[in-house]
Recover the amino acids of this structure.
């Protein structure tokens, strides 16, 4: 597939996707992140969980590659684990 921009064809680059989840007690935060990720071709929102224990289980069971935790005291934190690890 190619894109056309100003009469120039630009080949579309295949992008590997990563599964992302959110760990936060506020559903509105998770929905905001889900909305932001819609425009990111390489990140796919998997689901939201409320606790770190749920996040750990999600990592082990679903292949999620990153957990976003926007509710930490000092700002925003992201964790990344190897698949199946």
């Amino acid at each position: 597939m190619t894109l056309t921009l100003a009469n120039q064809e630009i080949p579309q680059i295949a992008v590997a996707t990563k599964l992302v989840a959110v760990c936060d007690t506020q559903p509105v935060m998770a929905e905001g992140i889900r909305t932001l990720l819609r425009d990111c071709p390489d990140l796919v929102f998997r689901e939201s969980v409320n606790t770190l224990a749920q996040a750990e289980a999600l990592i082990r069971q679903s292949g999620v590659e990153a957990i976003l935790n926007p509710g930490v005291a000092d700002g925003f934190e992201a964790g990344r684990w190897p698949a199946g690890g």
Observations:
- The first strand starts at residue 2 and ends at 5.
- The CA atoms of residues 32 and 38 lie 10 Å apart.
- Strands lie at 2-5, 8-11, 18-23, 43-49, 66-72, 75-80.
